[in-house]
Amino acid sequence: MVARWELRKLRPQEKNLGWAHQAFHVPDDVKKHWSRNISEGKVVETEWNEKFAAYENKYKEDATELKPIISDELPVDWEKALPMDYMTPAIRLAALSKSRVIYVMTHDSIGLREDGPTHQPIEHISSFRTMPNILMLRPADGNETAGAYRVAILNTKASESNHRKPSWLTQSNRNTYSLPYSTITSGTSMHMLH
């Protein structure tokens, strides 16, 4: 799916190129040009199938392992081998050792943008919010972001080690506007650290 902002960028280019076709329309000459790939592809596929059959006869065990990889089949219980998240161990260790660390995480949103679902890490904020000894900050606008940085920096300078903890600033992937009456100090305060 093409994002709306991308379509706006394409309009001037289409005009310059004389592309007066409707959206998602493929002209006949383009179809004809690319349709030759069908017959060429059938020849290549036949050659591949013959080579793979010969390989399978010669290397049965390897072919058995290779087939699911080629067909995108996942092995049984594949999900049990996955780590929750590649940064989790480091963040957990920082929380346990009360390290003076500020993590700045971006793209938090339940909405999709042009980057797609790979940039929609909605599960991270809840999992790290439940992790002990993490200061979780989720500012809503620019003023609160400045305030959140202030709190995070003061948190790293906390004199008592029992008040010091890693800070986690979660930023949205959305364009946000300043909220009415929003200031650097209105959304955050040091009482959050105690």
From TrEMBL:
SUPFAM superfamilies: Thiamin diphosphate-binding fold (THDP-binding). Signal peptide: none annotated. It catalyses: D-sedoheptulose 7-phosphate + D-glyceraldehyde 3-phosphate = aldehydo-D-ribose 5-phosphate + D-xylulose 5-phosphate. It comes from the Eukaryota. InterPro entries: THDP-binding (IPR029061), Transketolase-like_Pyr-bd (IPR005475), Transketolase_fam (IPR033247), Transketolase_N (IPR005474). GO terms for molecular function: transketolase activity. Residues 50-179 form the Transketolase-like pyrimidine-binding domain. Its cofactor is thiamine diphosphate; Co(2+). This is Putative transketolase, bacterial-like, Thiamin diphosphate-binding fold protein. It comes from Helianthus annuus (Common sunflower).
